[in-house]
Amino acid sequence: MLMLPTGVRIFVASEPTDLRRSFDRLAAMARDVIRQDPLSGHLFVFFNRTGHRVKILFFDRTGFVLWYKRLESGIFRLPAAKEGAIELDARQLSLLLDGIHPAGPSKANVSSPAEP
Known about the structure:
Blueprint: E1 10-13, H1 23-32, E2 43-47, E3 53-59, E4 64-70, E5 85-88, H2 90-97
Parallel strand pairs: 1-2
Antiparallel strand pairs: 1-5, 2-3, 3-4
């Protein structure tokens, strides 16, 4: 589970992003697409078109930090998208980064134990 300071919000860009973009262009996307201040200390999450890579941008009072992850198999399963961004909590982001859909498995996907 991610341990984030109180008040930190997590915004996921709803559209795929060209992950060749670095600090400044991702910060511009946080401002223009997600409509949040990139210097706020919030987390800004961007996924590529194929869904197996993610970059997370945040500002830690001294500069931008960029975190990058690539799944070796499978894809990240994003929640339903709205225009601009989706806001998640730390638990949902942690699940997402582990390759688990943040909404959790549906009842149809959960098998009940066999009766004796």
